[in-house]
Write a structure and sequence with these properties.
Strand order of the largest sheet: 1-2-4-3-5-6-7-8
Radius of gyration: 23 Å
Number of strands: 14
Strand content: 5-15%
Largest sheet: 8 strands, mixed
Distance between the termini: 54 Å
Helix content: 40-55%
């Protein structure tokens, strides 16, 4: 039976980083856990981890996928701890998966064997059921926020900035992560793990794993991302200061202890080796297209929540005359959002705007290769069923694009000139601030007239683009985009390879 006394006895994590939080918050953490356990029917059967070579991630980075040995009919291999690196993700939205790919790319380049641990992939597990439930509602609210100014201002902006800010979030997520411990219990305790989400880090700590690095996204310090018992990486100096001092994370009681210096590092931006290694060549090609008066190439990317179809239609319609006169080209990656593509397609059809649809992965890769050397015109829409292709295509298109149009999500940190459109959640605002301050992207254009004016300026002039290219080169020389390499190096791997 659930009682306050039983709860107090059961929960021994009540002071994150030595800081006191209200007992009412501890009570809520336990209530939340028991509620989720009831809703999602926790399965305590331990996973027996093994690995299989599967999918494009294996072909590109040699990344093996971790499966439950007892629940697969595929030929499996044991996890070899020699130079192994586990990359844990919830695959909730595109950002976590994008970071996982960046880590796999860096690890592969440095000679490690990356293992993908996607806790959403264990069919019938509590992890899968709970994450799908939460992702569904996150996507719904994200889409509502783009259609209702009132909801966005008074509900969603607050929920995505203050909801996970205070230290009590650490207790909430540690408690909830007990649901996921069966996935981690049989892993070797000292094998290195890069955690893309706090649920992974917390569950691994609860299972006694010792070598865990929590990869913190975004640029706004939120206690939600902190996992005591792990080391943490951030992408910017402001994020480092915010997490180091636990700024604005007080609850009812004042914070008396900071995060130890040894548990935090400013790694830099999490970017794939394939992108970092070609920064100079990609910038040269952008400048050459400017010099020769070629069509300005824009890359539009749909986020994991699929909240921006209406805005995409507005952007394309604003640039319609420039597209028709070969002054602008649009690559539109719709990811795997069939529903959002239907919405955008209907709007384009209504306006009489023509396009070319690409949905075959091999043919899409051939198109990208062609775009690297040939002139391209018109509007090219990309839609792929495979989740990896849906996310990774944006990386491939970056090489052949002049400007990426994106909400200030995890893509804020990539070395490509960026036009930031309206955020989906206040936590993303600091991504645009970071990009604009280091000079590789615009200020967030959340007003339609600002967006339209900036778009046409970027098409008809080259000064802004040249500024962003110059600063990308300066940032690259300073190591700003080496965060994935540094995150891998932050693990305590024996015989660590040197960068």
């Amino acid at each position: 039976m659930f009682t306050i006394e039983g709860m107090k006895k059961h929960n021994d994590y009540t002071a994150p980083f030595g800081n006191k939080i209200p007992f009412a918050s501890v009570c809520f953490a336990r209530f939340r856990y028991y509620l989720c356990r009831f809703l999602f029917a926790k399965d305590d059967t331990p996973v027996v981890p093994a690995a299989v070579p599967a999918g494009e991630a294996y072909n590109d980075f040699g990344m093996l996928t971790i499966v439950d040995k007892n629940k697969t009919t595929e030929p499996v291999q044991d996890i070899n701890p020699e130079h192994a690196l586990i990359i844990g993700t919830v695959r909730m939205g595109f950002g976590h998966w994008r970071m996982a790919i960046a880590m796999a790319s860096a690890a592969h380049h440095l000679g490690y064997t990356p293992y993908l641990l996607d806790i959403l992939s264990f069919d019938g597990s509590t992890a899968q059921k709970s994450i799908r439930f939460l992702e569904y509602w996150y996507d719904v609210f994200s889409r509502i926020s783009q259609k209702s100014k009132w909801f966005n201002k008074y509900i969603w902006e607050r929920a995505t900035s203050t909801g996970g800010r205070s230290l009590k979030s650490c207790v909430y997520e540690r408690c909830l992560s007990q649901l996921f411990t069966p996935i981690f219990i049989n892993f070797q305790k000292d094998i290195p793990l890069l955690s893309m989400h706090p649920w992974i880090g917390h569950a691994a700590v609860l299972c006694g794993m010792k070598n865990i690095v929590s990869i913190i996204p975004d640029n706004l310090p939120l206690a939600f991302w902190l996992v005591e018992g792990t080391r943490h990486t951030v992408q910017s100096p402001s994020a480092y200061m915010g997490y180091r001092t636990l700024i604005s994370m007080d609850t009812k009681y004042p914070i008396t202890n900071c995060i130890p210096q040894s548990a935090l590092t400013e790694a830099g931006h999490y970017v794939d080796y394939e992108i970092v290694s070609t920064i100079e060549q990609d910038c040269d090609k952008r400048l050459e297209r400017c010099k020769r008066g070629k069509a300005r190439r824009f890359l539009l990317t749909m986020g994991g929540a699929g909240a921006q179809a209406e805005r995409f239609a507005d952007i394309i319609n604003t640039c319609r005359s420039s597209i028709e006169t070969d002054k602008a080209v649009f690559f539109v990656n719709m990811g795997d959002h069939k529903g959002r593509w239907t919405e955008l397609r209907d709007k384009l059809t209504k306006e009489g705007i023509t396009y070319t649809l690409h949905s075959d992965w091999e043919q899409t890769k051939q198109f990208v290769k062609k775009a690297d050397s040939d002139d391209i015109n018109g509007i090219h829409i990309f839609l792929h069923n495979d989740f990896y292709a849906a996310v990774y295509l944006t990386n491939l298109l970056m090489h052949v694009s002049d400007i990426m149009i994106t909400k200030p999500s995890e893509l804020s940190f990539y070395p490509v000139p960026k036009l930031f459109i309206q955020r989906v959640g206040r936590h993303e605002a600091w991504g645009a601030i970071r990009g604009s301050e280091i000079g590789d992207g615009t200020i967030e254009t959340d007003c339609e007239t600002d967006l339209h004016r900036t778009l046409l300026t970027l098409i008809n002039s080259s000064d802004l683009l040249e500024i962003y290219i110059r600063h990308i080169r300066l940032n690259a020389a300073a190591g700003v985009y080496n965060g994935a390499y540094n995150a891998v190096a932050f693990t305590e791997i024996k015989d660590k390879m040197k960068l």
